[in-house]
Design brief:
By secondary structure, the chain is α+β, with helices and mostly antiparallel strands. The protein is 24% helix and 26% strand. The strands form eight sheets. Strands 16, 17, 18, 19, 20, 21, 22 and 23 form an eight-stranded antiparallel beta sheet that branches. Strands 5-4-7-2-10-13 form a six-stranded antiparallel beta sheet, with no helix packed on it. It has a five-stranded mixed beta sheet with strand order 9-8-3-6-15, with no helix packed on it. α12 packs antiparallel against α14. The longest helix has 20 residues. It is globular. It starts with 9 loop residues before the first strand and ends with a strand.
């Protein structure tokens, strides 16, 4: 807890006295959670506080948080929302400068607090921890904080339309007849509102959020088409947020809202989405003047249909000028990363990857903004790497590393989803955490954070050591999912039984990642000036080759005794330099033959493995391919954000926005254009371009820790401009 609060944690009295539910456990552990009252789920709590300022002031700020989430308004104006999800023992609060929102005289703070109550990947919900806390300061002096004098009302207007995704969110059938019109304004009469309950036993430990709140702004549609019984609305690309509109009708008039990422063959919006979300909601009008549709939770969508009876469409009930999207994502300046080239397909691929990262970077790195809304450790390897270039901001990447470190309280081998109340464990992902930590250090130069996080590396290492057999290979890591790749149909026939619990014996992928972790931890020890011994890693490499390398084919097999050589079983040894005598020709031939016969997640390792051995033309050919396993195929299928799989029908529930497919961004920057930090924190820039001869023009502008870098390639000539006084090493 970073400081003492003068304010009190306030809550809906219906939650008072309820013991928090411990939702944390090992994934494979059979746990029966205590019952959770249904009437306390999907709870919208409106909170108000009137106050007066009778002095002149120069500066004002407010510290605020809520469990699960809040939206803050001051004097009727939206200020911000949050917090970023966190475990109750390391819970985030936000600080806003609100000088421009306040005035001398009467003021009002209004907060819409939401408690969802579901066990999922989104929040640490379902634990009966509900409420909020806030403190307001003028010129550095405490003015007021939350206490029993604040008023509340439970809002009944957000009726559940059902639960979608993997218990991800409630659909919102909003009844404007039950809304508190004007409740965010100082003039609103709240005499019938009740006093909140103070919770003096709340157990949150609060820390100032190191990342900024999400940016929230309005976007107008690119196209609106009016039909007899509906409006068709196209925002032009995938986005994350809420649809918004206004209407003026009779009391009880109903308008249907359908959202989707794609269209059906008949041109209607596919609201029964392939990603297991049904985006169909109903809005009931109040009949009391103009109603505004204001969803609370967000969706991933591009298209919207507004459907109503023909009479409502024709008599002007619906204000089509009001159609808009309230977009939200981690703050992003598009000028921080610009790329263009003479290859139009690669330009389009870059754009869908960048938009996928934009949509998926919220308060956390989301696997998708639709079905799951969860932060997966393996996704961070790709999406986090892309985002640090897209945003020029390392704070979200650092937060993700810390989130997974904090999950060690459940398992020293870390969880696969963090934070969140859904318990899921994936061995492959835990083994990548030290690599993510090292990547952050190389881009930030933050040695203190590296020191702080190092013990987690040791915890992970010791956790997996318990699964070593006598020769050192990992065997029977049964309490975590051995993923290999996802979806299962893109594992290239990997022939080891990895269904939970996994089959007997040792297999390739988990051991390759283990070796990579050993080498990474030793590198971190070297940076920290700690003693280390490469003997374990060296011996492990020998055993790995003895067990998995087929001398007859010059390829690695999937498991001990297997004759099958999947793409994955060869890419990771290539990536981690597990090749005997550096002889990689047969593996490169395998990759050339198979292409990206893997998932989009594993494609990151394919491209990076090829870069390690200098196969740059093959890398570029794979990025710019239009085969069925390619980003080009996504473009052919109409992508405006990178997909979860190579094509819509290559997974049974494909999300059309999944930033773990954004590998071309870091690969083009680091391996084709050839930029990377030569020293931690970009204190020196390594520049080694490998631009294919088929390209006659390529230009990149990117922001790193030391400043802006510009690279321009034209007809064989390369120009680079980096930050002043930062040396550029040309290899």
């Amino acid at each position: 807890m970073d400081r003492q609060w003068k304010a009190k944690w306030i809550m809906d009295p219906d939650f008072y006295g309820l013991a928090p539910i411990n939702v944390f456990h090992k994934q494979m552990e059979e746990v029966q959670l205590p019952p959770h009252k249904e009437e306390l789920k999907n709870r919208h709590m409106l909170v108000r506080k009137e106050f007066y300022i009778d002095i002149d002031f120069k500066d004002a700020y407010i510290d605020i948080t809520a469990d699960d989430y809040y939206k803050l308004y001051i004097n009727g104006k939206f200020v911000g929302q949050g917090p970023a999800p966190g475990y109750y023992f390391h819970y985030n609060y936000n600080r806003y400068n609100i000088t421009s929102y306040l005035k001398k005289g009467k003021n009002l703070i209004a907060v819409h607090v939401y408690y969802q109550g579901l066990i999922n990947r989104v929040w640490n919900s379902g634990d009966l921890r509900q409420g909020m806390i806030g403190e307001l300061y003028l010129d550095g002096k405490f003015l007021l904080g939350t206490d029993r004098s604040w008023k509340y009302k439970v809002c009944k207007a957000y009726k559940s339309g059902g639960i979608i995704g993997y218990d991800t969110q409630y659909l919102e059938n909003i009844d404007s007849r039950l809304l508190e019109r004007g409740w965010r304004e100082p003039e609103y009469d709240d005499r019938d509102w009740k006093q909140v309950q103070e919770n003096n036993t709340f157990d949150h430990k609060l820390y100032l959020q190191e990342t900024p709140p999400v940016a929230v702004y309005t976007v107008k549609p690119e196209r609106v088409v009016k039909h007899a019984d509906r409006y068709f609305i196209d925002f032009g690309r995938e986005m994350t947020g809420q649809f918004k509109m206004a209407a003026k009708g009779n009391k009880g008039d109903v308008i249907e809202i359908r959202c989707g990422e794609e269209l059906q063959e008949d041109g209607r919006v596919r609201y029964k989405m392939r990603c297991n979300c049904v985006y169909q909601e109903f809005w009931t009008l109040s009949g009391d003047g103009v109603d505004e549709l204001e969803f609370y939770d967000y969706k991933g969508f591009r298209y919207v249909e507004v459907i109503a009876e023909e009479s409502l469409i024709n008599k002007g009930v619906i204000d089509e000028e009001s159609f808009s999207a309230v977009v939200r994502h981690y703050p992003l300046d598009d000028d921080k990363l610009k790329f263009t080239s003479s290859d139009e397909l690669v330009n389009k691929i870059w754009d869908i990857c960048k938009n996928g990262v934009r949509c998926g970077a919220q308060e956390n790195f989301l696997d998708c903004p639709t079905r799951e809304k969860g932060q997966y450790a393996g996704d961070v390897t790709v999406a986090g790497h892309s985002h640090l270039y897209v945003s020029g901001d390392l704070r979200l990447y650092k937060k993700a590393i810390k989130d997974f470190a904090l999950s060690s309280f459940v398992c020293p081998g870390l969880l696969a989803v963090a934070p969140g109340s859904l318990m899921q464990e994936i061995a492959d992902y835990s083994l990548q955490w030290p690599m993510q930590l090292l990547t952050y250090y190389m881009h930030s130069g933050d040695i203190k954070f590296l020191e702080e996080m190092y013990p987690i590396c040791e915890n992970i290492l010791n956790y997996f050591r318990q699964y070593r057999r006598s020769d050192g290979l990992l065997e029977g890591v049964k309490e975590k999912w051995n993923l290999v790749d996802w979806p299962a149909n893109l594992r290239d026939g990997y022939d080891f039984n990895i269904e939970m619990p996994i089959g007997p014996g040792v297999h390739n992928v988990i051991n390759a990642f283990y070796y990579g972790m050993l080498r990474t931890i030793n590198e971190i020890k070297s940076i920290l000036g700690m003693d280390y011994d490469n003997a374990e890693a060296d011996n492990f490499k020998k055993v790995f080759i003895d067990v998995f390398f087929n001398k007859e084919t010059g390829l690695f097999v999937d498991s001990e005794g297997s004759k099958h050589s999947a793409l994955h079983s060869n890419v990771l040894p290539l990536y981690f330099n597990l090749i005997p005598d550096g002889n990689h020709k047969n593996i490169v031939d395998l990759i050339r033959r198979k292409g990206l016969s893997c998932g989009v997640y594993m494609a990151y390792f394919v491209l990076k493995a090829l870069a390690r051995i200098g196969e740059y033309d093959l890398i570029y050919n794979m990025i710019s391919s239009e085969s069925i396993h390619s980003w080009g195929n996504m473009i052919k299928e109409g992508a405006t954000a990178c997909f979860e799989a190579w094509g819509k029908d290559q997974k049974w529930n494909t999300s059309l926005c999944h930033p773990w497919a954004s590998a071309p961004i870091p690969v083009l920057i680091e391996d084709i254009i050839g930029l990377s930090p030569a020293k931690p924190g970009w204190e020196e820039i390594r520049f080694t371009p490998h631009i294919p001869t088929s390209i006659n023009y390529m230009r990149l502008e990117v922001y790193v820790k030391t400043g802006k870098i510009k690279v321009e390639y034209k007809n064989g000539e390369v120009y680079i401009e980096g930050p002043e006084s930062v040396p550029v090493i040309r290899d």
